Structure to design on (292 residues):
């Protein structure tokens, strides 16, 4: 409850005072093509759409406190047409909810103490074909440590943080075992991690400010795991000790006030999920609207 209270306090902070440095960028992309069955050449149709929203609320609350809140929402689906002209069901292509709040104490030292909270999940979990789960899995992260604003020049900013981090992972109604009658037995799986966390955020304009480059690197080295004893003797007993890596790079180019090109490349490594690096790349041309 204490963690939830802290998180809610951070989430409510943007509404508590004004003015703020606010930015909300929303865009939608759509790609569609279709063929008649006598078109020939083996061509098939496709329908794909994606909705994205990136929001920032930042403020120097006073001479000694700075708050920075970021929100990323993304959802998209794709459907393909076979050679007989039949359209398949929509399959999810992208899905992300990521909210982070960082409170930095600007006391004039070489480094600034900070406290952070983050929520990561998705709208629709389809990893299990037999059950749809919403807002699952759920990752909660809290951090305490020191931060340093290395670069701050107009719209260019580089901030790094290092400290102690806690992480909670919840997977609701996850498959656990199969009953003799073929019934899948489920249970909520929950784990607590603690260790060293490091994060670097970088933002800068490019090409006469027509392109914005945003990069975020996060590292987490766990030193304890609540269920480590249950894994003893298993091949994956030490997987939780591996360094978790997340690196996202976004290039957002404005062609006109409403047309944009967006390139999002995300690199992830979590040995408990997969022993290899995972890469997601999205290139989109679509409509955008900057609310603020």
């Amino acid at each position: 409850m204490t963690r939830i209270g802290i998180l809610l306090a951070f989430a409510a902070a943007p509404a508590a005072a004004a003015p703020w440095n606010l930015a909300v960028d929303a865009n939608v992309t759509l790609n569609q093509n279709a063929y008649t069955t006598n078109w020939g050449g083996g061509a098939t149709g496709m329908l794909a759409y994606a909705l994205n929203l990136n929001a920032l609320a930042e403020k120097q609350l006073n001479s000694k406190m700075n708050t920075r809140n970021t929100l990323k929402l993304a959802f998209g689906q794709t459907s393909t047409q076979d050679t007989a002209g039949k359209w398949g069901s929509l399959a999810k292509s992208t899905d992300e909810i990521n909210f982070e709040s960082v409170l930095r104490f600007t006391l004039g030292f070489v480094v600034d103490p900070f406290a952070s909270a983050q929520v990561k999940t998705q709208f629709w979990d389809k990893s299990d074909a037999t059950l749809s789960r919403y807002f699952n899995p759920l990752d909660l992260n809290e951090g305490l440590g020191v931060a340093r604003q290395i670069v701050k020049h107009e719209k260019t900013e580089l901030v790094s943080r290092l400290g102690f981090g806690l992480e909670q992972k919840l997977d609701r109604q996850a498959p656990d075992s199969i009953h003799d009658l073929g019934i899948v037995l489920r249970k909520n799986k929950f784990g607590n991690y603690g260790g060293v966390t490091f994060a670097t955020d970088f933002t800068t304009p490019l090409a006469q400010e027509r392109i914005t480059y945003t990069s975020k690197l996060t590292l987490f080295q766990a030193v304890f795991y609540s269920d480590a004893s249950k894994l003893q003797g298993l091949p994956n007993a030490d997987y939780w000790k591996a360094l978790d890596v997340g690196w996202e790079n976004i290039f957002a180019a404005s062609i006109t006030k409403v047309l944009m090109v967006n390139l999002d490349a995300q690199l992830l490594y979590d040995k408990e999920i997969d022993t290899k690096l995972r890469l997601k790349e999205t290139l989109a041309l679509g409509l955008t609207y900057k609310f603020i």
Q: What stands out?
A: Residues 11-18 have pLDDT under 50 and may be disordered. The CA atoms of residues 6 and 12 lie 10 Å apart. The helical segments are 2-12.
